[in-house]
Specification:
homodimer; alpha/beta; Molybdenum Cofactor Biosythetic Enzyme, Chain A; Alpha-Beta Plaits; 2 domains; 6-stranded mixed beta sheet; 4-stranded antiparallel beta sheet; 9 helices
Chain lengths: 254, 254
């Protein structure tokens, strides 16, 4: 495999009892997945773990060597349940230090706010030794990068700001292209067609996602490839086959 | 620890390229987490893996012995990308067989539908040898139980039906109770209060979840305990402390 063919992958560790209790609906998986696609990086695995040192350390160490990049979300705020920096530092085998630039950013941000830069707020300047900051225009508290490990906020729109700051800075490969074809049919009716088309096209995966809408059964077929040519050929073949069988289908998806 | 104090835990493996690509917003984590809470079972870890045999086998085997129960979602449909039954069977070291009752259910369901019980549809009757079925009134295709492993659908409202069928059938412990107190303040202002109250109450965790709403900063504090008495004491202490400091807070959450 030449270097240009390398598939870049990332893993994501979501840290938060609020996700595991079902209290909070996670939005970071989809948000980070879509952002990574644009960078030419595929999200290879996600783990959701509780606010527990050992659980975070185990997940970070299992995934950071297996993937080109590791992202975490959650647990970098000012309260006692925010232990991500401590856990990741332990996983990396480095000390926790106060980052001078982060302290300056927080001092500035809290200068005109009640209480000023309290000890709790100063917790947000703590980083694994050797880390760089990821800017966050929203709330002052920065994200953190240490080697291939990126610590992001739990609040999705703060994470969005941090992703924005990282856009274009990570090396990636050819982005995975995709096209969707929607069809008003039970996916089980066209299972053979899908299998044959995927088999006939190298570097092509077809996913089938059924739905029930407007009282009818349908499915969207998502065709993915890193090659525009292969993708187009697979989409054309699929539409032709669905048309021949008389199905009601919609390129672009339903 | 007496048997009544045992904390029952479950893990969840979400199988699906559509989640890892960001195309589909996962809803099963929150849905299954909330259902488990009612059964007195805590969701301890979630992994999202791709439609890949080795990845599914690794996740299932890592988690099924660590937890009392293991749930999977996704990959039990009729198409070529539905490989969960094969992967879980390999993980359990058992053969894949056609379950006679599942075949009968599907034959009945497809009797009056175009094509009838095709080979693709019959795939949905395949189970790991020794498995029982989990009824699904929605689409005929059943969920699957093998020992402590439960294979559920990827489509959230089908999974909801399967959870409904399982309600009350799994052994669990004391449900984790929770109360929320909302407060119009930066969580960093009250970090000390939260830490002290958590420390003063055994069997009590307090999570802090900041938000930005109506142009104001606030946070919800979620207090969790298996003891109603401990929970109430922690909530009362928190409300008293917030009141003394003059904060605008709301029992029940904002």
């Amino acid at each position: 495999m030449s270097n240009t063919d390398k598939v870049w992958t990332a893993a994501l560790v979501i840290i938060g009892d609020e996700i595991l209790s079902g209290r909070t609906q996670d939005k970071n998986i989809a948000q980070i997945a879509r952002w990574l696609q644009v960078q030419g990086i595929r999200l290879g695995e996600v783990r959701v773990v509780s606010d527990d040192m050992d659980a975070i350390i185990a997940a970070v160490n299992a995934l950071r060597s297996e993937h080109d990049y590791l992202f975490t979300t959650g647990g970098i705020g000012p309260t006692h349940d925010d232990i991500t920096v401590d856990a990741v530092s332990a996983a990396l085998g480095v000390d926790v230090v106060v980052h001078p630039e982060a302290r300056a950013i927080l001092a500035d941000y809290y200068a005109d706010k009640p209480g000023g830069l309290t000890e709790a707020r100063l917790r947000m300047a703590r980083v694994p030794e050797g880390a760089d900051l990821i800017p966050n225009r929203m709330s002052g508290a920065p994200g953190i990068r240490h080697g291939n490990v990126f610590l992001m906020a739990g609040v999705p729109h703060i994470t969005a700001q941090m992703l924005d700051a990282l856009t274009g800075t990570l090396e990636g490969g050819a982005p995975l292209l995709s096209e969707t074809v929607g069809c008003w049919t039970a996916e089980s009716e066209v299972a053979d067609i899908l299998r044959q088309i995927e088999k006939a096209h190298e570097d092509c995966q077809i996913g089938s996602y059924p739905f029930f809408r407007e009282g009818r059964i349908g499915a969207n077929f998502v065709i993915r490839s890193t090659s525009e040519e292969v993708l187009q050929s697979a989409v054309d073949t699929l539409c032709e086959a669905l048309g021949e069988e008389g199905y009601d289908f919609t390129p672009g998806g339903i």
